[in-house]
Amino acid sequence: MTAPVTSALRERLLAALETVRDPELDEPITSLGFVASCTVSADGYAHVRLRLPTYFCAPNFAYLMVADAYDAVSAQAGVRSTSVVLEDHFASDAINGGVAAQAGFVRSFDGEAIAELDQLRADFLRKAVMAGTDQVCRPLLAAGADPAALLAMTLGEVPPSRALSRLRERRAELGLPAGDDAPLLVNASTGAPVGVDTLHAHMRRARVTRISIEANSGICRGMLRHRYNTPGQGETLLSPASEEDR
Fold first, then answer.
1. Most buried residue among 19, 36, 132, 219 by CB atoms closer than 10 A?
2. Maximum CA pair distance of the chain?
3. Helices (H) and strands (E) in the chain, counts
4. In CATH, what class is 3-115?
5. How many Å apart are CA 17 and CA 155, to the nearest integer?
6. Helix (H, G, I), strand (E, B), or coil: what is residue 8?
7. How far apart are CA 104 and CA 212, in angstroms?
8. Three-state SS at 102
9. For the chain, which residues make up each domain, given as ranges?
10. Gap between the Cα atoms of 23 and 65, Å rounded
């Protein structure tokens, strides 16, 4: 590859890594600063180094991010070989070796793990849906909408925003209704519309979930800066994200 082609491919790799999210925080690993480096050689060998806020970050969360990063980079045209390496983590060897071998979580942690991580991923997606519900509803309530009126709203009636697009994506990933005619308020586990009797509890849970995720995001960013004190590849220097970005 020529230098311009290699540079363009690297930009595509960073864009691909932007689709990889921390499962707990529901934010891209790029904007969180978790991508220490991203390089690609002239012959299409891609190498990504990841880092996390602490040495003891949960290995199941870490495995998901490394595996998703590997898949995202490997899927890019022009990439012939992919290496994704998590550094400075107590389970780095097991995670890096397992992802490289496409072994899955259970085989990577033989004798320690008893199940793959599909359920964990779904649990965090449900939390993301709840947090996203609060992010979408807060502007509506601030504009004077009655909480009960939200029960009759569909996603298509909500003013477009990044938060709304994100909520639709998370709901679609879970197989929940995400089209224009889908109710704005749905049970994050079943997709059933929220009823009058559960409205206030649903909205409280959505708010608490959003606050919890944003608080954890701030803590992780602070710990990462303290640990490394250098920006990650593709990291926005405007973090934490604005309300609209969230």
1. 132
2. 63
3. 7, 5
4. alpha beta
5. 28
6. helix
7. 29
8. coil
9. 3-115, 118-224
10. 8
Q: Are 189 and 148 in contact (CB under 8 A)?
A: no
Per-residue pLDDT reduced to its tens digit, 100-156: 999 999 999 999 999 999 999 999 999 999 999 999 999 999 999 999 999 999 999
Helix (H) or strand (E) segment spanning residue 195: none
CA 93, CA 95: separation in Å to the nearest integer? 6
Instruction: Please state whether beta strands 35-40 and 27-28 pair in parallel, antiparallel, or not at all (unpaired).
Output: unpaired
Residue whose entry in the numeric block shows the structure tokens 């704005």: 184
**Amino acid identity for residue 204 in this structure:** R
In contact, 48 and 85? CB cutoff 8 Å:
yes
Instruction: Report the relative pairing of strands 35-40 and 21-22 from DSSP bridges.
Output: unpaired
Q: What is the pLDDT of residue 6?
A: 82
- Give Cα 189 to chain centroid, integer Å: 19
